[in-house]
Design brief:
Elements: H1 5-23, H2 25-37, H3 42-48, H4 51-69, H5 77-90, H6 95-120, H7 128-174, H8 180-190, E1 197-203, E2 214-215, E3 218-224, E4 229-234, H9 240-247, E5 255-257, E6 261-262, H10 267-279, H11 295-301, E7 329-331, H12 336-343, H13 345-360, H14 364-379, H15 384-391, H16 395-409, H17 416-437
Domain PucR C-terminal helix-turn-helix: 370-427
Protein name: PucR family transcriptional regulator
Domain RsbT co-antagonist protein RsbRD N-terminal: 26-161
């Protein structure tokens, strides 16, 4: 870089002053530390009194002086400033401490340079007007570099802390032991109280991107798995009904939510209950097509069900997202019979074979018709008229099918204990059929067609 005569002379004067100040680095370091001690907080006082800080201050002063003397070259003080910013962030030293150090160092170097030039080149003092602007600009640039590096390091630290905290959350969900101190740090980082009320959602359907981090007053943290997405819900004072209502418009497919648990360290139990609820989120037993009715039933189908006495109340639609339609969020507390069956697959298979085995051995069309009829009749609270309206057939047709189910199973639907066995057996059929339809079908899941 070619300098004009005036700039060349100015540069010569500055370089001479820099060489003198380089020799005074130990003295300048002492003065800087003395300035920093004046009015320092206790933590700052410990910092500036350490040998490591003295060594760092000497390196920093030398780098700034080299930058002042350089012309057209890369500034050696900028990498050091970025290093200082990162180191202060990693050691949790306040950013203001670093910026105060640079401000005082800039003032100290400028005053020392004025003293040197006054003593050695008094005729060149007017040159310092330009030098003052340049020096102050350099200090501002250094402060900006320190700040940017400090904040980037903070972001990196937060990201690392967040990943570690989420790893602890994964361990809790998967039932792996977590040391108390790690649990405490992770809970604090994730802002999850250790003693709060929690529930877990297991979602097989796509979750919105980005997934919601709140549902009303409920805090949510989502964790992906190979086959599901788990949502950890800090319920606080909210109930499952409010949470389900908030999330139902966002989740369009199978999902399960378990029972509330107390404490973040009970998330493994909450996750197991959510998985159980998800297994209950399967379609009801239905015929392949309602048009496939036996010829002996066709005569009653065309007559309006409302003309046949009994119960004339309008039919009740299936609750959206309930355990009966295989879509939306299924709450475990609303499908406990199905959950009992799903939790004990071996007993469920035995119950299915013993209670409804003869029914399952029928022709598929008749079998599905009877299964659907008894399921709808139970959904309607035992009302034959309402079941008939739901099934688009005559109430006597429903009665005939119910009696046939009772003959085949050897159990009376009017008898509470025997009806309970049929209810559980039907849930076993429903869950087994869903398992058969799933891509990864487990062994022993057959519901006989």
């Amino acid at each position: 870089m070619t300098l004009t005569p005036t700039r060349a002379h100015e540069h010569t004067v500055i370089q001479d002053a820099v060489r003198e100040l380089m020799r005074r680095i130990p003295e300048l370091t002492d003065r800087l530390i003395a300035c920093l001690r004046d009015g320092a907080r206790p933590d700052e006082l410990r910092l500036v009194s350490s040998p490591a800080f003295r060594a760092s201050a000497q390196t920093g002063l030398r780098a700034v002086l080299e930058a002042v003397a350089s012309v057209g070259r890369e500034r050696p003080d900028m990498p050091f400033a970025r290093q200082v910013g990162r180191r202060y962030a990693e050691r949790r030293i306040p950013l203001e401490t670093a910026l105060r150090t640079y401000r005082l160092a800039g003032t100290l170097l400028w005053e020392s340079m004025v003293d040197v030039i006054t003593a050695r080149h008094p005729e060149d003092l007017p040159l310092l007007v330009t030098g003052a602007r340049r020096t102050m600009s350099m200090v501002d640039q250094l402060s900006l570099s320190v700040t940017e590096a400090y904040r980037q390091a903070q972001r990196d630290l937060r990201d690392g802390e967040l990943e570690r905290a989420l790893g602890v959350l994964d361990d809790l969900l998967d039932g792996r032991p977590v040391p108390p101190e790690r649990l405490a740090r992770a809970a604090a980082r994730l802002d999850l109280p250790r003693s709060g009320r929690y529930a877990v959602l297991a979602v097989r359907a796509p979750v919105p991107a980005p997934p919601p981090d709140r549902a009303g007053d409920v805090r949510l943290i989502w964790r992906p798995r190979s086959d599901v997405v788990l949502g950890v819900a800090h319920l606080g004072a909210a109930d499952l009904a409010a949470l389900t209502a908030r999330l139902s418009p966002l989740i369009h497919g199978p999902a399960g939510i378990g029972l509330p648990v107390e404490g973040v360290d009970a998330l493994a139990t909450a996750r197991r209950l959510a998985d159980l609820a998800l297994r209950c989120a399967v379609p009801p037993v239905r015929r392949a097509g309602r048009a496939r009715l036996g010829q002996r039933e066709a005569a009653g189908r065309h007559r309006p069900a409302s003309t046949h006495g009994g119960d004339d109340r309008p039919p009740e639609p299936h609750a959206a997202g309930g355990p009966g339609d295989g879509g939306g969020i299924v709450r475990l507390d609303e499908c406990l019979p199905a959950a009992l069956v799903a939790a004990q697959p071996d007993l469920a298979r035995h119950l299915r074979d013993v209670v409804v085995g003869p029914l399952l051995d029928l022709d598929p069309a008749e079998r599905d018709t009877l299964l659907e009829t008894v399921a709808v009749w139970l959904d309607c609270g035992g009302s034959t008229a309402r079941a008939a309206r739901r099934l688009f057939c005559h109430r006597n047709t429903v009665l005939g099918r119910i009696r046939r189910v009772e003959r085949l199973t050897g159990r009376r639907l009017g008898h509470p204990r025997e009806a309970a066995e049929i209810v559980l057996a039907l849930e076993s059929v429903r869950l087994a059929r869903a398992a058969e339809a799933a891509p990864n079908r487990g062994p022993g899941a057959s519901a006989r067609g």
